[in-house]
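Section 5.1 Outputs to date
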Amino acid sequence: MNNKDTQNRIIIGALIAVIVLMGVVFAAFSSSLKVNGTATIASEWKITYTAGTCTATSKDTKAPSSGTVVMDGATANITANMSSPGDILNCTITVKNEGTLPAKRSSFSVTTPLTKEDNYTVAVSPSGEGEVLAAKAGDTVKSETLTVTITYKAAVTTKPTANETFKATATYVQAPKAA
């Protein structure tokens, strides 16, 4: 074989190698990944609110103070019928975690009627963030009782003339699952 034939064979071999390499590179960049599947979420978020009762400490025994709690979703509408300055009304709300996810109270607040906010003091218990309400386990449901205390200020010199409605709202968020 002569030198020219050897050179031609090297060139042809190199060209074949380049073409094969181009095919491999093209195949690598043009392939697609197709993923098929379904996912099912078996968790349930279910926080329920139940109106409790109101008990009053009243100075006027002939017409004592009273109140009611009516739930509207996560908001308790508390109607206070206060009879005398210094009267106190304690109302309860029960919150249950009937879902499969743990929950934690992130806030608990009460809105006072703006026209009468100087006549009342309002306190919530427990205040702020709450403990984790564990997820429902079988028939065991975790719950907590929230209390709203409304006081008709003793310094007010006039008796209340109408029922007042206070709005108590408790907000819950998903808590991390225990390890």
